[in-house]
Fold each of these.
Amino acid sequence: MSAAISINQRARSAEQKALRRQAVLEAAETYFQEVGYEAFSMAQLGKRSGVAKGTLYLYFDTREALFLTLYEQSLMRWSRGFIDALSDDITSEAYAKLLYRTALADGVFLPLLIRLEHVIEHNVAIPRLIESKRIFIEQVEGVAKRSATALQLSAAQAVEVVKTMGVLLIGATQTDQSPSLADEALPTDVQNLIASFSSEPLFIKNAVRIIEGIRAEALSNP
C-alpha cells in the first residue's frame, strides 16, 4: 500500500505525519509567495491546506517556527544551486553577481533571511533555534568549501567571505523596500537617486571590494 497521504486525510503513522507536514510546508510556501510575511495567517493556511488551525500547531509551535523551517529549506535549496553554478577561477564580480541573482531568484529565501534574526528567531524554542543554527553552519561550510576553490582563497578566507556576503545581502536589499515607482513619471534627478540605491549594484560593488580586500589582507600578512 502506498504511503502517500492526502493533505486533508488524518495522519496516523510517523511516515504519514511526515508526509502531511511536508504537504503543509509546500502549501505554506506557495501562500507565502502570494501574500508575503505580514499578511501570512495560520488560520488561512489551515483553510488553504485543509488542515485545522489547531493541527498546524502540532507540527509547528508558532508561526515563526513554520517560517524558520521554510527558511531552512530555502537556504539548502539556494546553497545547492549556488554551489552547482560556481566555476573554478571565477572573478570576484562574477561570484558576487551569481550570489545575488541566485539568492533573489528564490521567492522565499531572502524575505525570510531579512527577518530571521530580528523577528523569527525570537519566537521559537531554544532547542529548535540550536537545530537551525547547526543547519546554517553546515550550509555555510559547504558554500565556503566550494568558494575557496572557485575564488582561490584559503578555507578561513572563504568562510569570512560567505558570512560577510550574507550580512551585505541583507543590508543592500533593504534599500529595495520603498514603494515601487516604476510606472511613475519622475524627474531625472530623482530617477538617478533611486537607481543609485538599487540593491544589485550596491551589493556587487561592495561585495567585490570585500572579496578583494580579504585576499589582499592575506597577501600582506602571510
Note: Confidence is low (pLDDT under 50) at residues 1-8.
Amino acid sequence: MTVTVFKGTLTGKVVAARIRPGRDLLDALEELVRDSGFRNGVIELVGSVRKARLSCYDQARKEYIEFSVDEPLEIVTGLGNVSLKDGKPFVHIHLTLSDESGKCYGGHLVRGTETFVAEVFVSELVMDPPMNRTRDEETGLMLWLPY
C-alpha cells in the first residue's frame, strides 16, 4: 500500500486558549499541549502576529529554509497536529499569514513568531499506537512512520 494509515478516535477533550501579546507562538503552543497532557491531536488557530518566522522545506537539499516577515500580519489559517517525537509531544503547525494589502505568506511555524493575539483549539486524538515521528530516509523529514 502506498499510504500509511493510522486509526484512532477523538476523545472529546478539547482545550481552548488565548495566547497573550508578546509570546513566541510556537513556545506558547508547546506549553499548552504539554500542560494539557496531549500526546496526539489536532490544532487550529486564528489571530495575528507582530512579526513572523517561518520555514519552507527544500526538497532537493533536504533542509528547511527559514525566512522572516517583520511586520504585523493576520493569521488567515493556522492548522497543525500533535504527535510524539523522541517520546515527547511535538507541535507541527503551518500558517498562512496576510499583510494589510492582502499579500499572503505561508510556511512551517518556527521560533521567532511574536504573537499579538491568538485563539487556539486543540482536540485530543487517541491513536493506537500513538503517532510517532521518525526520520524518513527518502525525504529527510521527521514523519509518522509505521512501527
Note: The first helix runs from residue 25 to 36.
